[in-house]
Amino acid sequence: MVEMEQDYPINNKRPSSNPEIQNEQKKVKHFNAKEFRKQLNSSSKLQVLQDFQNSIKSEPSKRDCIVDYLQNGGTCIELLQTLEFDSTLPPSLVFEIVAYVLLKVNASCPQYQNSSIEACRYVLNNYVTVVNKMLNLSSTTPERKACLKLLTAMVALSPALAKDILVHVNFHSTNVELLTKHTGEKDSVRDHFVRFLTAFLVDGHYPALSMLLEKKGFITSIIGGLQAIPANSFNLYTTIHDGFNSWEIYDHLLSWNSLC
Fold first, then answer.
1. Which pLDDT tens digit goes with each residue over 131-154?
2. CB-side exposure of 111: number of CA atoms within 13 Å?
3. Does any domain span residue 195?
4. Are the C-beta atoms of 86 and 236 separated by less than 8 Å?
5. What secondary structure does DSSP assign to 18-76, as a single string?
6. Assigned domain for 6 exists
7. Is 92 helix (H, G, I), strand (E, B) or coil?
8. Which structural domain range is residue 217 located in?
9. In terms of Cα–Cα distance, which of 240, 154, 165, 151 is closest to 204?
10. What are the Polar residues biased-composition ranges (predicted)?
11. Is 25 a member of any domain?
12. pTM of the entire structure?
């Protein structure tokens, strides 16, 4: 018996058996802010948070998904509270997403600044123990980076927050030594710590800068490695030094290649 070949609709391509081609043939799933907020209360919150993070990273020019989220009633506090409803969620994931949102608010969505500052105070009031743990020897490199991203975004958002961070977060000498250690890694923990210190220069708020300088070993911890500063961090230094406006500085802090 002759085996008949399966018919396919005219003008349609036969489905490929190659998994890679099948994936390419699938429609791209766009971020839906309303659906995302609903899913934050479901058992799949880890997956939707990871999808949100990927959406942010895949839109380097506009970050429309962050704006969509904010315009549909989303807040940083809502994101942070997912950690309270599900203890299995990694704080590093949530902290990194919140950092992205804060930087976006700072750069181009000032109407959400008050609620964002409130969320930052929520971090300092409810998660400072987690923050301190993520900066010490018991943490992993990705955890330290995520935590420093969040703290950098908070410092850039408000001079008052910058002062509060120096008061509440435990930057003792052992932690500073760990965070400034040369590893030879591209986009290292040290690089993120340098950006954190640089964020204090965005507004040049004297009380915050004065408190920073009083922190023993903070500034001197990075002096020895200034010749090895990555180009993206050096651009931020020169932007501040040359007196550019705050929005241009925020653009440097929003460099997703350096923060992601």
1. 999 999 999 999 999 999 999 999
2. 4
3. yes
4. no
5. -HHHHHHHSPP----HHHHHHHTTSTTHHHHHHHHHHHHHT-TTT-HHHHHHHHTT--H
6. no
7. helix
8. 32-259
9. 240
10. 13-22
11. no
12. 0.77
Write down the residue that tokens 């507004």 correspond to: 203
Number of domains forming the structure of the chain:
1
CA 221 distance to own-chain centroid: 24
Give CA torsion, residues 101, 107, 110, 115, to 10 deg.
30
Please enumerate in sequence order all residues whose Cβ is within 8 A of that of 125, keeping only pairs 6 or more positions apart, or say none: none
Q: What is the CA radius of gyration of the chain?
A: 22
Helix intervals (H) in the chain? 19-25, 33-39, 45-57, 64-71, 76-85, 91-108, 113-126, 128-134, 141-157, 159-168, 173-179, 189-199, 206-214, 220-223, 231-241, 246-253, 256-259
Average pLDDT over residues 75-85: 97
63 dihedral zone (left: phi>0; alpha: psi -120 to 50; beta): left
Residue predicted with more confidence, 234 or 192? 192
CATH number at residue 153: 1.25.10
Burial category of 39 from C-beta neighbours within 10 Å (exposed 0-12, middle 13-18, buried 19 and up): middle
Which residues, in sequence order, are CB contacts of 151 under 8 Å at separation 6+? 131, 165, 169, 196
Q: Alpha-carbon torsion 153, 174, 235, 201, what sign?
A: positive
- Cα(160)–Cα(177) distance, integer angstroms: 26
- Whose tokens are 């934050």? That residue is 40
Domain contains 234 = yes
Question: Given this model, what pLDDT does residue 215 score?
Answer: 82
